[in-house]
Design brief:
This protein is of the alpha+beta class and 277 residues long. The chain has one domain. The strands form three sheets. It has a six-stranded antiparallel sheet with strand order 5-8-3-2-10-9, with no helix packed on it. It has a four-stranded mixed sheet with strand order 1-4-11-12. The protein has a two-stranded parallel sheet with strand order 6-7. 26% of the residues are buried.
Length: 277
C-alpha cells in the first residue's frame, strides 16, 4: 500500500528547491536537529523528564520508584549528557514530512499561514530517489514509556534490586545504576513528546559523517539576526521525488495557474492544486 507524505513550507522556498533547469533534480535543505521550529527540540527529553517525573515514576511498581527517581535525577544533572548534546550540535540534520494532507494543523503555523504550501511525495519513491530511509517519529508519554523506552524500563527494574530504601541512594552501590545511562543513550532524534502526536511526523536523519553521501551534501550557514547565531544546514541534491504541490488556503485560484506555468518553464512535471480548507 502506498504511503503519501507531505512537506510543509512556503511558496518562496520553491526557487531554492527546484533549481535544476532540466527539471530532473531538486535541492533539499536539512536543518541541524537543535534548530528545528521547536526551539527545545534538541533538549526536549531532559525537559520531559523534569516536568513529567511524577507521572513517569507512577508507571513503575512501588519497589521500583526510588530507582526511577534516581535515574531521572542523574540523567537531568549529568554533565556528560549535556556535553553529548553539545558534541552532537553540528552532526545531526533533519528533514521532516507528515502523513497529513492539506492539514489546518500546519496551515495555521506562523511560517505557513500566509503563503504556505505542501509538497507531496510517495514514501517508497522518495527513498528510492534519495537513497535514504524515511523513519516514522515515535511519541513518548508516561503511558507509552514501555513501548518507546523499553531499555529504560528494564534498567530501572534492574536497578531496583539495589535500592530498597532512600538510605541506599547515598551508598556506593548506586554507582551500578543503569537507568540514567539508558536515558542518555535514547535515540531522541526519532522520538518526540506525545504532545506533538497529532502531527504524524516522519523524518530523514543524516549526519555530517554520512558515509557514501558526502558528495551530495553542502554545508550552509544562515545567520539569525535576532540571536546573531548561525544555523548549520545541509543542502542535498537528489532526483525529484515530488509529484504534487498543494497551495495553502490563503492563495487564490490565480496562483494555481501561475505556479503551474512556473513549473513548466522549469521543466518539472508537477501537479498543482489548491487547499480545500
Amino acid at each position: 500500500m502506498k504511503k503519501y507524505l507531505y512537506h510543509y513550507t512556503t511558496l518562496g522556498c520553491l526557487e531554492k528547491i527546484f533549481t535544476d533547469p532540466e527539471g530532473t533534480y531538486i535541492d533539499l535543505k536539512l536543518k541541524d536537529y537543535h534548530f528545528l521550529n521547536d526551539g527545545y527540540e534538541g533538549k526536549w527529553l531532559v525537559r520531559f523528564m523534569e516536568t513529567c517525573k511524577d507521572a513517569i515514576v507512577g508507571q513503575f511498581k512501588l519497589n521500583e520508584r526510588l530507582a526511577c527517581e534516581k535515574a531521572i535525577k542523574d540523567f537531568v544533572e549529568c554533565e556528560c549528557y549535556r556535553m553529548l548534546l553539545k558534541e552532537q550540535n553540528d552532526k545531526h540534520y533533519s528533514f521532516s514530512m507528515s502523513e497529513l494532507k492539506d492539514s489546518m494543523l500546519f496551515w495555521r503555523q506562523d511560517y505557513a499561514k500566509d503563503n504556505g504550501i505542501a509538497l507531496c511525495t510517495e514514501k517508497s519513491d522518495f527513498e528510492k530517489k534519495s537513497k535514504l530511509t524515511v523513519e516514522q517519529v515515535r511519541y513518548l508519554g508516561a503511558e507509552t514509556l514501555n513501548e518507546i523506552l523499553p531499555d529504560f524500563v528494564a534498567a530501572v527494574e534492574h536497578d531496583a534490586q539495589y535500592i530498597k530504601s532512600r538510605s541506599d541512594l547515598r551508598s556506593d552501590i548506586t554507582d551500578m545504576l543503569k537507568g540514567a545511562k539508558s536515558l542518555a543513550n535514547t535515540d531522541f532524534l526519532r522520538v518526540k513528546n506525545i504532545t506533538w502526536e497529532a502531527e504524524k511526523e516522519w523524518r530523514i536523519i543524516i549526519t555530517q559523517k554520512f558515509e557514501g553521501k558526502k558528495n551530495l551534501l553542502k554545508m550552509e550557514e544562515i545567520e539569525i539576526d535576532e540571536k546573531s547565531k548561525y544555523i548549520p544546514r545541509y543542502r542535498m541534491r537528489i532526483e525529484n521525488p515530488f509529484n504534487e504541490i498543494i497551495l495553502g488556503p490563503t492563495f487564490s485560484n490565480y496562483y494555481v495557474e501561475a505556479v503551474s506555468e512556473w513549473f513548466d518553464r522549469k521543466h518539472y512535471k508537477i501537479k498543482v492544486s489548491k487547499s480545500l480548507g
